[in-house]
Amino acid sequence: MNKHKLLLAGMMSLSLLAGGLPGLAQAQDNSTTSQTGQYLSDAALTTKVKTALLAEKGLKSTDIGVETQNGTVQLSGFVMSSAQMDQAVDVTRHVKGVKDVKNDMRLKTAAQ
Hints:
Domain BON: 41-109
Number of strands: 3
Order of helices and strands: HHHEEHE
Organism: Solimonas aquatica
Keywords: Periplasm, Repeat, Signal
Helix content: 40-55%
Number of helices: 4
CATH architecture of the domain at 30-107: 2-Layer Sandwich
Largest sheet: 3 strands, mixed
Main location: periplasm
Signal peptide: 1-27
Radius of gyration: 20 Å
Strand content: 15-25%
Strand order of the largest sheet: 1-2-3
């Protein structure tokens, strides 16, 4: 019995997420729906950029923060050289879906 309730609850949740209940989708505020979609798109783009940076040889990308808003990717954190900074920006620019790149990275100093 509990398995059936869980299955039904899961199906209803998926239906709600997909806008599958008649009238409910119409009642949703379009701006909220588009904001949610944009948030999901930005989250996916952030993941794609992080993956691309991790795949780059010679780049310690774990020290680079990635945030995305409306397709604009902001890179922050510390890198060892200006060449690594340029490399991170270039890799990010070539990720499909990136509209712009804001570089807020800094060079590491000996004390950091």
